[in-house]
Amino acid sequence: MSTPSRKRLMRDFKRLQQDPPAGISGAPVDNNIMVWNAVIFGPDDTPWDGGTFKLTLQFSEDYPNKPPTVRFISRMFHPNSKF
């Protein structure tokens, strides 16, 4: 089934492949356009320099009017965290 949100995600994915932004990578999981895996590479000269941060994005049928749910898979330092 091709809904407006799925068509938009296909366009977004195609654009991401053709002109990827620096330090970011992402793609749908197992041909499910509504769930993506992504990676953010830590910017140079920051506390995250050299880091690789994995995350998942879960899109709803309300996309792009509603943002995806984003969950970081990689553990990372945060001053308020308990680990």
Strand content: 25-35%
**Unreliable stretches:** none
Radius of gyration: 15 Å
Roughly how much helix do the residues carry, as a percent range? 10-25%
| Average pLDDT number | 92
Query: How many distinct beta strands?
Result: 4
SSE blueprint:
Layout lengths: L3 H15 L5 E6 L2 E10 L10 E7 L10 E4 L11
Can you characterise this structure?
This protein has 83 residues and is α+β, with helices and mostly antiparallel strands. 18% of the residues lie in helices and 33% in strands. The protein contains 1 helix and 4 strands. The protein has a 4-stranded antiparallel β-sheet. A hairpin with a 2-residue loop joins strand 1 (24-29) and strand 2 (32-41). The radius of gyration is 15 Å and the shape is globular. The relative contact order is 0.17. The mean pLDDT is 92.
Task: For the structure shown, list the relevant keywords.
33% strand, alpha+beta, 4-stranded antiparallel β-sheet, 83 residues, 4 strands
